[in-house]
Amino acid sequence: MSNIITEITKEQLRTDVPSFRPGDTVRVHVKVVEGTRERIQLFEGVVIKRRGGGISETFTVRKISSGVGVERTFPVHTPKIAKLEVLRKGKVRRAKLYYLRNLRGKAARIKEIR
Protein backbone atom coordinates (compact mmCIF):
# COMPACT_ATOMS: atom_id res chain seq x y z
CA MET A 1 0.00 0.00 0.00
CA SER A 2 2.75 2.46 0.87
CA ASN A 3 4.48 1.75 -2.46
CA ILE A 4 1.37 2.92 -4.29
CA ILE A 5 1.23 6.10 -2.21
CA THR A 6 4.91 6.91 -2.78
CA GLU A 7 4.58 6.35 -6.54
CA ILE A 8 1.55 8.63 -6.78
CA THR A 9 3.19 11.35 -4.70
CA LYS A 10 6.39 11.15 -6.79
CA GLU A 11 4.32 11.93 -9.89
CA GLN A 12 2.82 14.99 -8.17
CA LEU A 13 6.17 16.50 -7.09
CA ARG A 14 7.37 19.55 -9.01
CA THR A 15 10.86 19.57 -10.45
CA ASP A 16 11.08 23.31 -11.21
CA VAL A 17 11.26 24.49 -7.57
CA PRO A 18 14.39 26.60 -6.93
CA SER A 19 16.35 26.10 -3.73
CA PHE A 20 15.36 28.65 -1.09
CA ARG A 21 15.60 28.91 2.68
CA PRO A 22 14.08 31.01 5.47
CA GLY A 23 15.41 34.55 5.17
CA ASP A 24 15.31 34.57 1.38
CA THR A 25 13.18 37.14 -0.43
CA VAL A 26 10.96 35.41 -2.98
CA ARG A 27 8.35 36.39 -5.54
CA VAL A 28 5.53 33.87 -5.89
CA HIS A 29 3.39 33.94 -9.04
CA VAL A 30 0.02 32.53 -7.93
CA LYS A 31 -2.73 31.49 -10.33
CA VAL A 32 -6.02 33.06 -9.18
CA VAL A 33 -9.36 31.98 -10.69
CA GLU A 34 -12.03 34.69 -10.77
CA GLY A 35 -15.20 33.34 -12.33
CA THR A 36 -14.15 32.01 -15.72
CA ARG A 37 -10.93 34.04 -15.91
CA GLU A 38 -7.58 32.95 -14.59
CA ARG A 39 -4.88 35.50 -13.83
CA ILE A 40 -1.48 35.63 -12.15
CA GLN A 41 -1.14 37.43 -8.81
CA LEU A 42 2.29 38.28 -7.39
CA PHE A 43 3.16 37.87 -3.71
CA GLU A 44 6.63 39.09 -2.79
CA GLY A 45 8.14 38.84 0.67
CA VAL A 46 10.51 37.09 3.06
CA VAL A 47 10.29 33.35 3.68
CA ILE A 48 9.79 33.02 7.45
CA LYS A 49 9.39 29.26 7.63
CA ARG A 50 9.59 26.08 5.63
CA ARG A 51 8.16 22.86 7.02
CA GLY A 52 7.29 19.30 6.06
CA GLY A 53 8.70 17.13 3.36
CA GLY A 54 7.64 15.51 0.14
CA ILE A 55 4.22 16.38 -1.21
CA SER A 56 3.07 18.07 2.02
CA GLU A 57 5.96 20.55 2.23
CA THR A 58 4.89 24.17 2.78
CA PHE A 59 6.51 27.57 3.15
CA THR A 60 5.25 30.86 4.59
CA VAL A 61 6.02 34.24 3.06
CA ARG A 62 5.63 37.52 4.97
CA LYS A 63 5.33 41.00 3.50
CA ILE A 64 4.21 44.41 4.69
CA SER A 65 1.24 45.73 2.69
CA SER A 66 0.01 49.27 3.48
CA GLY A 67 1.66 49.10 6.90
CA VAL A 68 0.01 45.79 7.78
CA GLY A 69 1.94 42.52 7.96
CA VAL A 70 0.53 39.84 5.65
CA GLU A 71 1.60 36.20 5.81
CA ARG A 72 0.62 33.59 3.28
CA THR A 73 1.39 29.88 3.38
CA PHE A 74 1.88 27.97 0.14
CA PRO A 75 2.37 24.26 -0.55
CA VAL A 76 5.67 23.91 -2.43
CA HIS A 77 4.34 21.41 -4.96
CA THR A 78 0.94 22.96 -5.72
CA PRO A 79 -0.05 23.56 -9.35
CA LYS A 80 -1.49 26.94 -8.24
CA ILE A 81 2.05 28.37 -8.20
CA ALA A 82 2.95 29.38 -11.75
CA LYS A 83 6.50 30.45 -10.93
CA LEU A 84 8.71 30.93 -7.88
CA GLU A 85 11.61 33.41 -8.09
CA VAL A 86 14.32 33.89 -5.48
CA LEU A 87 15.21 37.59 -5.50
CA ARG A 88 17.69 37.79 -2.59
CA LYS A 89 19.46 35.25 -0.42
CA GLY A 90 19.25 36.21 3.25
CA LYS A 91 21.66 35.31 6.03
CA VAL A 92 19.79 34.14 9.14
CA ARG A 93 20.65 31.81 12.00
CA ARG A 94 17.18 30.42 12.63
CA ALA A 95 14.90 28.02 10.78
CA LYS A 96 11.72 29.82 11.86
CA LEU A 97 11.77 33.61 11.72
CA TYR A 98 8.71 34.31 13.89
CA TYR A 99 10.60 37.13 15.62
CA LEU A 100 10.16 39.26 12.48
CA ARG A 101 6.49 39.65 13.42
CA ASN A 102 7.47 41.90 16.34
CA LEU A 103 10.02 44.02 14.45
CA ARG A 104 9.20 47.19 12.50
CA GLY A 105 11.02 49.15 9.81
CA LYS A 106 14.78 48.89 9.56
CA ALA A 107 14.96 46.44 12.47
CA ALA A 108 13.16 43.85 10.31
CA ARG A 109 15.86 43.90 7.62
CA ILE A 110 17.82 40.73 6.86
CA LYS A 111 21.45 40.73 5.77
CA GLU A 112 22.05 39.60 2.21
CA ILE A 113 24.49 36.86 1.24
CA ARG A 114 26.80 37.99 -1.54
From TrEMBL:
<keyword id="KW-0689">Ribosomal protein</keyword>
<protein>
    <recommendedName>
        <fullName>Large ribosomal subunit protein bL19</fullName>
    </recommendedName>
</protein>
<dbReference type="Pfam" id="PF01245">
    <property type="entry name" value="Ribosomal_L19"/>
</dbReference>
<keyword id="KW-0687">Ribonucleoprotein</keyword>
<dbReference type="InterPro" id="IPR018257">
    <property type="entry name" value="Ribosomal_bL19_CS"/>
</dbReference>
<dbReference type="InterPro" id="IPR001857">
    <property type="entry name" value="Ribosomal_bL19"/>
</dbReference>
<dbReference type="InterPro" id="IPR008991">
    <property type="entry name" value="Translation_prot_SH3-like_sf"/>
</dbReference>
<dbReference type="GO" id="GO:0022625">
    <property type="term" value="C:cytosolic large ribosomal subunit"/>
</dbReference>
<comment type="function">
    <text>This protein is located at the 30S-50S ribosomal subunit interface and may play a role in the structure and function of the aminoacyl-tRNA binding site.</text>
</comment>
<comment type="similarity">
    <text>Belongs to the bacterial ribosomal protein bL19 family.</text>
</comment>
<dbReference type="InterPro" id="IPR038657">
    <property type="entry name" value="Ribosomal_bL19_sf"/>
</dbReference>
<dbReference type="GO" id="GO:0003735">
    <property type="term" value="F:structural constituent of ribosome"/>
</dbReference>
<dbReference type="GO" id="GO:0006412">
    <property type="term" value="P:translation"/>
</dbReference>
